[in-house]
Amino acid sequence: MRRVTLFVNGTSTNGKVVAVYGSMEDLLSVASSKLGIRASSVYNGNGGLIDDITLIRDDDVLYISEGDSFEDPQDDFRDPDKCQTHTDWLTLNVGGRCFTTTRSTLVSKEPESMLAHMFREKDVWGNKQDSQGAYLIDRSPDYFEPILNYLRHGQLIINEGINPLGVLEEARFFGIEQLAEQLETLIKSSQPPDDHSPLTRKEFIRFLLATTTKAELRCQGLNFTGADLSRTNLTHANLSGANLERADLSMACLDGANLQGVKMLCTNAEGATLRSCNFEDPAGIKANLEGANLKGVDMEGSQMTGINLRVATLKNAKLKNCNLRGATLAGTDLENCDLSGCDLQEANLRGSNVKGAIFEEMLTPLHMSQSVR
């Protein structure tokens, strides 16, 4: 077995020691994973292109490019700006909490991510800074911390009490695809045991037929995690306390449904109707729709005091005359959303997108302190 040291073309820092085996394609695959680039060419220290793995010797130093021509790594030291791109320290102010890291941490592991594009070159994006010079990012610091640690050492570590779904949404927001795939696998593997396993659409329909009464469908407290309920008629159903995380409710009808304390994290309810629904739980358990896809939904006249709609998508939704008092709408996409007649007193709209939203006839004026964008 031969061991070699790999560097990104034109640099002499952040090298990776790897074992050489198999073919050139195998080496390029390993280089892509270790260096976070799309490796396609291998050069020796003199700039010679290597196209035969048998030419590689033990302890060789190799330079990996994405198809561009060889660049002398000594230029990395002669050009201060280029060298600093990989070594200078940055402070990020994420949702009020500061994180200190290096520029290379943000750009090397996931070179196509939003963070890499923001910080690869200085001031290209015009990133805003606070009075201490920290770069401002309006996202959740609790969910950002596992992402930064992943970029540092490549391991997914989530502290107790942190919802992996929140970290997944942030990974998707920042375009960190490899991490998002790991999180999806983690969430899937942590599903409830067989005695509480998610229902298939067929099983759910069979359950409804067995429990339907003339008064209503009674489904409170049940687990429908990941269930396919698209286009299902659940008018006036009692779904209080039900778990509908990642369920497909697209184009479903839930008019008049009892949704007190329901869990709908990352649920897909695009195009569904939820008119005059009740999300308010007298016991104080708040309905959680964080990260849900609610594009084009009709929720007119629903009672949603204290509901959690953080980073949910409500583009082109109809929320006319809804009670959203004390609701969490931070980071929510409310583009072209009809909020006329809504009660938004004490609602948190920080970082929400209200482009084209309709606020006429609101019961409570929208205050600038609510920090919308």
From TrEMBL:
Role played: Substrate-specific adapter of a BCR (BTB-CUL3-RBX1) E3 ubiquitin-protein ligase complex, which mediates the ubiquitination of target proteins, leading to their degradation by the proteasome.
Pathways per UniProt: Protein modification; protein ubiquitination
InterPro entries in the cross-refs: 5peptide_repeat, BTB/POZ_dom, KHA_dom, Pentapeptide-BTB/POZ_domain, SKP1/BTB/POZ_sf, T1-type_BTB
Keywords: Phosphoprotein, Repeat, Ubl conjugation pathway
Protein species of origin: Lates calcarifer
Ranges for domain KHA: 3-82
Tree of life domain: Eukaryota
Protein name (Swiss-Prot/TrEMBL): BTB/POZ domain-containing protein KCTD9
Keyword Transferase: no
Keyword Calcium (UniProt): no
Coiled coil, from the record: none
Domain BTB per the UniProt entry, residue ranges: 90-160
GO BP terms: protein homooligomerization
Pfam family, one: Pentapeptide
